[in-house]
Amino acid sequence: RMGFTVAIDGPAAAGKGTIAKRLADHYGFAYLDTGLLYRAIGRVAAERGLDLDDGEAMGAVARALDPAVLDDGSLRGREAGELASRVAVHPAVRSALTEFQRGFARRPGGAVLDGRDIGTVICPEAEVKIFVTASAEVRARRRTAELVAKGRSVDYATILQEVRARDERDSGRAAAPLKAAPDAALLDTSELDIEDAFRAACRIVDASP
Ligand code: C5P
């Protein structure tokens, strides 16, 4: 399919990354985890000792971002996620990333992008939009299990608090807040395992005109 875009949005730890990657593999589309862009900017800014609340300075970091840094696996950690949600509030950061994401979305072979504002701001014309959610409790339980499996000592209450704080920051900001596009299909994964969630997402893609 030519220039076919699948936009996947939702809060942290709802399963959207896993679903997006599986969809990309299944349909042979390219995949972009857009959270990595914000994570990389937060990381670079923190390393340079810059003020994360300075929108102009963060915009400059974003404009100079080299997409090659996205391969750094350590960006997926909790600290980088926290830094990401702080720099993501700035319009100058978001606008610096828009063209790169739109270019990716229009790849001739099809693309899956996941993030917070893909269906609402980056690709409002996407052929498929899915908003992936799950209750905060379920997301915190999954995140805790993931971290424990990696040998970290974390407790559920702390993770739940982090999940809620991140939801609030992402949904409450003025620039491109986290919300479902009016025409997005809702996929609540609270009661689904990853296989069922993936199959439900495939049905949504296959039902698109
Ligand atoms: O999805 P991930 O957890 O990697 O995103 C980290 C943070 O980056 C989010 O909490 C959000 O603040 C920001 N983000 C965003 N827009 C996107 C993707 C991520 O604002 N499209």
What does the average pLDDT come to? 96
Tell me the structural class. Answer: alpha/beta
How far apart lie the N and C ends? 12 Å
Give the low-confidence spans: none
User: β content, as a range?
Assistant: 5-15%
Ligands bound, unique:
cytidine-5'-monophosphate
The side-by-side strand order for the widest beta sheet comes to: 2-3-1-4-5
Query: How would you characterize the largest beta sheet?
Result: 5 strands, parallel
Radius of gyration: 16 Å
Order of helices and strands: EHEHHHHEHEHHEH
Per DSSP E runs of 2 or more residues, the count of β-strands stands at: 5
Form type: globular
> Helical proportion?
40-55%
Multimeric status of the protein: single chain
- Count of separate DSSP helical elements: 9
Topology:
Layout: E1 5-9, H1 16-27, E2 30-33, H2 35-47, H3 55-63, H4 78-87, H5 91-105, E3 111-115, H6 118-122, E4 128-133, H7 136-149, H8 156-172, E5 185-188, H9 194-206
Parallel strand pairs: 1-3, 1-4, 2-3, 4-5
The protein binds cytidine-5'-monophosphate (C5P).
Residues 12, 34-35, 38-39, 81, 84-85, 88, 115-117, 166, 170 line the site of cytidine-5'-monophosphate.
Family: Belongs to the cytidylate kinase family. Type 1 subfamily.
Binding site for ATP: 10-18
GO biological process, one term: pyrimidine nucleotide metabolic process
